[in-house]
Write a structure and sequence with these properties.
Number of helices: 7
Order of helices and strands: EEEEEEHEHHEHEEEEEEEHHEEH
Structural class: alpha+beta
Number of domains: 1
Strand order of the largest sheet: 1-4-5-6-7-8-9
Helix content: 10-25%
């Protein structure tokens, strides 16, 4: 299932009279999102959803009439990298970007990194992938129009992406919006799955606060719909998690 969240900007200069959605939501199994972000040189795919999602993702890109030129992963959980190998095979030369820490998990290396919290535990599925990243992301890097923001907690190396054009925050699983806006630092009984897979909840809560401080214009996440003007809802989610 695919759905478009209508946010548009001008197309490339050679076609100034057309518009393209800046953000396209690709929804799988009713609860898992991947995102296509429009750029002048093509599309950035943020996350690769579940295994078997490649055809739906490629169809969504075809409907937009633009090639996927890069894949940026928020983190290495199974529901965010499931179609990575199939997409890499279908898109020769595509850039694949992930944080250095979650690149280790992508390579099935579950060894803790010195300095990580002693009480942290890897949770959720980390099946890894055959595809190796072509770029390792650091906070402040740019992926097209997306600024990389550190967002650890749900996984050790999760990152978020802030679109500098309109301040859309693609937050991975730092937040979820199914059943209302919630951080994954605490269980939301309306949709508990992301919190159950969180690596270190105190770190996740700190990340939730730091992402809120960015004052995003809209919030896009791995699970649930886009939320416009999310500040107050993020504040309430943080307060519930901190209680």
């Amino acid at each position: 299932m695919c759905s478009l969240h209508t946010m548009t900007r001008s197309h490339t200069p050679d076609a100034p009279s057309t518009t393209l959605p800046t953000l396209t939501r690709i929804r799988r199994l009713g609860i898992v999102n991947a995102w296509l972000v429009a750029e002048d040189d093509g599309l950035t795919l943020v996350d690769a959803a579940t295994t078997g999602s490649a055809p739906a993702i490629l169809r969504a890109a075809e409907a937009l009439g633009r090639p996927i030129v890069r894949i940026a992963l928020t983190h290495a959980h199974v529901d965010h990298i499931g179609a990575l190998d199939a997409l890499a095979a279908a898109l020769p030369g595509v850039e694949v970007a992930v944080s250095p820490r979650d690149a280790r998990l992508l390579a099935k290396d579950r060894t803790p990194v010195p300095g990580e919290p002693a009480d942290a535990k890897l949770r959720g599925g980390y099946p890894g992938a055959s595809t190796r990243p072509t770029r390792l992301l650091e906070p402040g890097d740019r992926v097209g129009s997306l600024e990389v923001v550190a967002a650890p907690g749900h996984t050790p190396g999760q990152v978020a992406f802030l679109d500098v054009r309109d301040r859309t925050l693609i937050a991975g699983d730092a937040y979820a919006t199914l059943g209302g806006v919630a951080t994954t630092a605490a269980l939301n009984w309306r949709f508990p799955l992301p919190a159950l897979a969180t690596w270190h909840r105190p770190t996740a809560l700190r990340t939730a606060r730091e992402l809120r401080a960015l004052d995003p214009a809209r919030l896009a996440v791995g699970h649930g719909p886009v939320v416009d003007a999310p500040g107050e809802a993020m504040d309430r989610a943080i307060a519930r998690a901190a209680a």
